[in-house]
Design brief:
The protein is α/β, with parallel strands linked by helices and 216 residues long. It has nine helices and eight strands. The protein is 44% helix and 16% strand. The strands form two sheets. Strands 5-4-1-6-7-8 form a six-stranded parallel beta sheet, sandwiched between helices. Helix 5 links the parallel strand 4 and strand 5. The longest helix is centred in the N-terminal third of the chain and has 17 residues.
Length: 216
């Protein structure tokens, strides 16, 4: 195993289980377009990728229509959906262990940074992060690759070979590859094993406990 110094975490499906809040907010946005959702579980596969892409690719909306849906989603998320969320078991202990071993820890999420930082504070894990980066409300960081690049620039990470990205969806793995860093795909989130294996991550782990073991 290579020696890594800098660990980038995805948020949704990697550190937290946001299913309740995200599915309710997607349903809320779709309802404004006259699309009713009878089963919130049917929306779980949409957790993770950038929302604009989700509305365009899954519902056939044009870009401006998709952006309007994102705004509607955020209307509910900012007030309520943000807190309909929970940490995966063992996450605070994992972050504490990483910091005690002098790893640098970062957040790289497709969730808007303003919401992501509030979630870290809500769960009292913000103290473990050297920098927390996310997407921008103005859609200027629309891909996971652009978010990872933004984190690297702000954290002054000049050697991607010292970095590793941890996430549960293909977008995390694609972003890592496009920024020349290794990736750990985790199977306890919302990406299927087939989805993750197709992107050939450096490592494929099943649980938070596996992450503990991986980083010693």
């Amino acid at each position: 195993m290579k020696s890594y110094k800098h660990i980038l975490f995805d948020l949704d499906g990697t550190l937290t289980d946001p299913a309740e809040g995200i599915t309710k907010c997607i349903a809320y946005a779709l309802e404004a377009k006259g699309i009713m959702t009878s089963n919130l579980d049917s929306l779980k596969p949409l957790i993770g990728p950038p929302l604009k892409d989700t509305f365009m690719h899954s519902y056939g909306f044009e870009e401006q229509e998709a952006l309007a849906c994102v705004d509607k989603y955020r209307e509910r998320f900012a007030m309520q959906g943000l807190y309909e969320n929970m940490l995966f078991d063992g996450v605070p202990e994992l972050l504490q262990r990483l910091k005690s071993k002098d790893y640098k820890v970062y957040l790289a999420t497709s969730k808007p940074e303003i919401f992501a930082r509030r979630i870290l504070q809500h769960f009292a894990i913000d103290q473990y992060f050297d920098f927390a980066g996310g997407s921008a409300l103005d859609d200027s960081r629309p891909t996971k690759t652009s978010v990872i690049q933004y984190v690297m620039e702000n954290a002054r990470l000049t050697s991607p070979h010292d970095c590793i990205m941890i996430g549960d969806r293909k977008h995390d793995l694609i972003g890592a590859r496009e920024t020349n860093m290794d990736a750990i795909a985790v199977l306890y989130g919302y990406g299927s094993q087939a989805e993750l294996e197709q992107e050939s991550p450096a490592y494929l782990l099943h649980s938070v406990a596996d992450l503990f073991e991986f980083f010693g």
